[in-house]
Design a protein that fits this description.
This protein is an alpha/beta fold. Helices cover 49% and strands 11% of the residues. It contains ten helices and five strands, in the order H-H-H-H-E-E-H-E-H-E-H-H-E-H-H. Helix 1 crosses helix 2, helix 1 crosses helix 3 and helix 5 runs parallel beside helix 6. The longest helix has 19 residues.
């Protein structure tokens, strides 16, 4: 793998070469940040980066409607609480919390779930502060069971997302991994490039201490070792349902 130092030495030249390659395909693409990320993703191979970026532009045209994916089209996914944005790490990167125990594979509509994944990533990118170009993720496998395992979504997350959003993910912290994550990782890992695989950190029993090294306490919910009492509305609904159920019996 080519070192990142290569970009600092030859970055401007590589961007110009990639821009020229795209022009040959009648694409006058000017976003230097995107060009840089695709060059890094393809180890600074201009022709491979050009091919990948063209494929991504075609994918976006077919997958994401004009104006973006609307909340109304992924409303049930948002309400499930399976994933949401919350807080920033100490480098001011926005954080996505993913809780796959709230994903019931037999009940999901694949198209909506895929669109929700992209909706969330687009939301994270739109919220990036100036000078920050990546987000982080906490992937919490607490409560996970066979009912949550979804081969098609695992492949989508492993292949489609890194290919179309290279270098947007800074790191994923995996907590409560256990047996199920090991099984899922065997499916996902071969579909990822080496650079993406290295961004997954499997944390052990000291996971709260590790998270607190990366996040201020007020940027983490209480269940993740922080002091922020915010809870997803799905948890509030579940608690209310539990109280009602208990009182009626």
């Amino acid at each position: 793998m080519v070192s990142n130092s290569c970009f600092f030495v030859h970055g401007a030249q590589k961007i110009q070469e990639l821009h020229a390659c795209l022009l040959k395909h009648n694409l006058n693409f000017q976003d230097r940040g995107v060009l840089r990320r695709f060059l890094i993703y393809r180890n600074y191979d201009v022709h491979k980066a050009c091919h990948s970026l063209i494929e991504t532009l075609e994918w976006r045209h077919s997958f994401i409607p004009v104006g973006g994916i609307s909340e109304d089209t992924v409303k049930s996914e948002i309400q499930s609480g399976k994933a949401y944005m919350f807080g920033h790490d100490k480098s001011n990167r926005p954080c996505i919390i993913a809780r796959p125990c709230h994903h019931i594979a037999s009940r999901r509509h694949l198209d909506e779930t895929e669109k929700f994944s992209i909706f969330l990533i687009e939301q994270a990118i739109a919220s990036l502060p100036p000078g920050i170009d990546s987000f982080v993720c906490i992937l919490d496998f607490a409560g996970y069971s066979y009912a949550n395992f979804d081969m098609k979504m695992a492949k989508f997350a492993a292949k489609v997302i890194p290919q179309n959003y290279p270098e947007r993910l800074q790191v994923t912290y995996i907590i409560h991994g256990g047996f199920f994550f090991t099984a899922i990782w065997k499916v996902m890992a071969p579909l990822m490039d080496e650079r993406t695989r290295r961004k997954f950190r499997i944390l052990g029993s000291d996971w709260k201490d590790v998270l607190l090294q990366q996040f201020d306490r007020d940027q983490l919910q209480i269940q993740y070792g922080g002091t922020n009492p915010w809870r997803h509305p799905s948890e509030e609904r579940q608690q209310s349902h539990t109280r009602t159920h208990t009182h009626t019996h």
